[in-house]
Structures are given as structure tokens and as C-alpha cells.
User: Fold these one by one.
Assistant:
Number 1:
Amino acid sequence: MILLERVSKRYPNGREALTNVSFFVDRGELVFLTGRSGAGKSTLLKLIALLERPTRGTVTVNGRSTGTLKARHIPAFRRQIGVVFQDHKLLADRPVFDNVALPLVVAGAPLAEIDKRVRAALDQVGLLGKERMLPMELSVGEQQRVGIARAIVGKPPLIVADEPTGNLDPDLALEVMRLFKRFSDVGVTVLVATHDLHIVREFGGREITLSSGQLTGGAADPLPSLVASR
């Protein structure tokens, strides 16, 4: 589902956020991306979601190399990826329903389909019945679940989450991670960036660790056999 081959990312100010990173994430895997603040986790997720492009190397998602995609194909590419942010990025002046519906509205989905999918997504995260509430009327944990509902409303095969439990207390963090585990159990690929090693140990997914923009440990072990079989 995700393949990075010798990927580096240098920003215009000269900072190299990633250096020669290679790894593979299989379909349906729940994988944790760990490392200290500034290690390159957010940059890596942006490359996968095509919010940034690599300076060197190849990023392949669901069989498509991001480096070869033309600008007109980027919106369709991004629709196959659900992105969850630490700070929710919800529209404060719009109700829950509108926030969750946004990706479908942008994609031009029919109104009847939007209504059906939004209610199904809210049901999955335990918020059905709160469609008309504004984000500020919800708890922090509920706001994060709205963000997750928005990420899954289009039924993407891949979810990437950037520190999704960073602002939550331990109980709420476990609640959110159980949602991601449930998606993984039904075949969705989930990549979660986190510095919370307790979460990693609790859920037992594979761990990919970054330090100063480089992989540490055996994170890339699955890659050689995959490449040899292509």
C-alpha cells in the first residue's frame, strides 16, 4: 500500500527533514511512526498524502508513484487517503454534519449519498445524533472523532494520522486508537505518527522509528523481499 524508496526531503531553507528513507507498509497493516518532535514524522506523512513532494527518491501509494502524477490527478489521488490531524482542523462555524461531509461535497457526490455516508461515518465513531452541533459544543475527544469521521467518510483504503492522540488524556487516547484498530481489522491500512510509546505497546502494531530524518532499527526489513518480488 505504501512504498518509500530512498526518499529524501530538503526544504527551500536548506533543512533536510528526511534522508534516504525506505520502507513498506502492507495493505491492512496498522503501523506506528515514532520519533522525537522534529524527527521528520509530519514531513513523511505529507509526502504520502501528496501535500509535499520528495526532493529525491520515490513515494508509491496504492500502486501510484506520486512523482509521476499530473496536477489534475492529485485531487483523485488524495481522495483515497483519509488524513487525521492532531488539532482536528474543523470548521468552527459549521455543524458536525457539514465538517464530515466536506470531502464528499468537494468530490461532487450526490446529496442522498452524502447524507447516507455522513451518518454512517458518525455512527462508526459514536457521534450519531450530534450532526447539528458545532465543534465547540463538543468535548476535545468528540472533536477528534469528528476529524476521524471526516477522514473515513469517503471509505479510503488508507488512513494517515499525525499525532491524533497528542491532545487527549490517556483514556481518550486509547478510545481513539481502538477506532483505528477497528478500521485496520476490516482491511484499511493505518499509519499513525505518535511519540506515545505506551500507545504503541498497547496495540502492538509494527513500529517505524525516525531520528533526525533517518530510519533507526529494523524498520525497513520488509522492503527487500517486496522489491525482489516486483
Note: Confidence is low (pLDDT under 50) at residues 218-230.
Number 2:
Amino acid sequence: MTAVAVAHAVAGPADAPVVVLSNSLGATRGMWDPQVPALAERFRVVTYDTRGHGESPAPAGPYRLDDLVDDVVALLDALGVRRAHVAGLSLGGMTALRLAAREPARVAGLAVLCSSARTDPQGFLDRAALARAEGTASFAPAVVSRWLTPAFAAQHPDLVARLEAMVSGADDEGYAACAEVVGGIDLRADLGRITAPTLVVSGAEDPALPPEHQRLIAEGIPGAGFLSVSPGAHLANLEQPQRVTGALLAHLESAGATP
């Protein structure tokens, strides 16, 4: 499949090292809003909507994970970026892992949040079928209930409503095709080939992809660091913005420049 031109935004100095942030299944680039201001003080921050999400096109499926990687490579090429740091959460983390394994020259530093190298496929295949049959709005509240711990969600009803709108706003077929990507991945053989300095972040209370998924990633990538945040569910970057942003800044700065 041909790469698609994904919707994106750029913040920060034009001559700074570049960091690309990749969103989770069902979210848009807006999920990174708490991280962008601090990162943009030191980096050129590129956020984008994965195909099928937000303002990006939703070409007919099926999709492969390599298609999502091709979209990121095409975005980097369009921006004139030869080498970048890449951080991704959930599906975005899977995209980042595959990019780092497949295109090591393009990835200077890697951060993988609340993601997995091998999922239990049936739940994602069932959700893909539901997206096609009833639309993403039919399960938006159930999905978002796994993104934040119950106590945090109860304290932030406006955020919950915004996240549910993200899920409901995804293209039904695009979401379904991406859910099938998540259900079909097996990146375990890729982990040992990743050479970029890597940080793996885990939400201790993540019911969607529990911590054992992130521990497997960290153990498989030579020299990877591991950070567990609590309380934190699947979108730990929203529940622990200062901790996650600080960890990203420290890791990416230590990973070096992206000429």
C-alpha cells in the first residue's frame, strides 16, 4: 500500500533536534498536548494523526504495521528530516518499535509507552468487527474507561468527554483496520535488532496492555530503560504528565542530537 500524507503539526525551533510523537489506537495527536509545550522548548516536535484517525485519510484496508511505518517515513521525508527521535504510545509504540527495527538510520532515540510486542488478538479483532457493524461511538466510553484510572477519570470529566470524542471521531473502517494491525502484531523478533537508545514506560494500572507487555519489550531491547508510573492506566502520559514529560526529556536529551 502507498504511504498516505498524514495530518500533522509542528512546534518548537526549526533548527532543534526532532521528536515525532505517535498516537494510540482511537486517539488523535491531541493526546500529546500535555507533553508538547515542554518538549518544544528543546525539540522540534512533530505530532500526527495515524491513518484512520483525526484529520488523516482513511484509505481502504487492510493495513499492515509496515504501512503505518511507511506513513511516518513519508512524513519525515516531507519535512526534510533525516533522523529523529520517536515516541509512541500503544499502537504508536508498535509503529515506533517497527520503525526503529526496520529503519535504524532514521531513529536517534526511542520511547515506547504502554505498548506491546505481541497482543492477544481476539479482543482487537472483535473490536474491529464492532467498529464496522456499529461504529466507534458504540464503544468509545468502554475504551476510554481503560485509558485513565477510575479516580482520575472521576476528577476530570471534561478530559473523559474529550477522549470519548476522539474515539467517536475516528473513521470506522480506518479504526477497524488499525485494530486488526494491533491484533496481528508480533514484534518479538524485532526487539533484539533495535539499536536506538530506548526508554519503555508502563502504566502500573493499565488494564488494556498490562505491565508485563512493557517488561517484555524492555527485556528484549539491549540496554533499554524501564519506568513504571502509578497511578497510571493506558494513557499514562495524561495521568502523569510531569513524570512522563520529564522522563522523555531526560531520555531524548541523553540519546543525542538528530542532525
Note: The two ends are 30 Å apart (CA to CA).
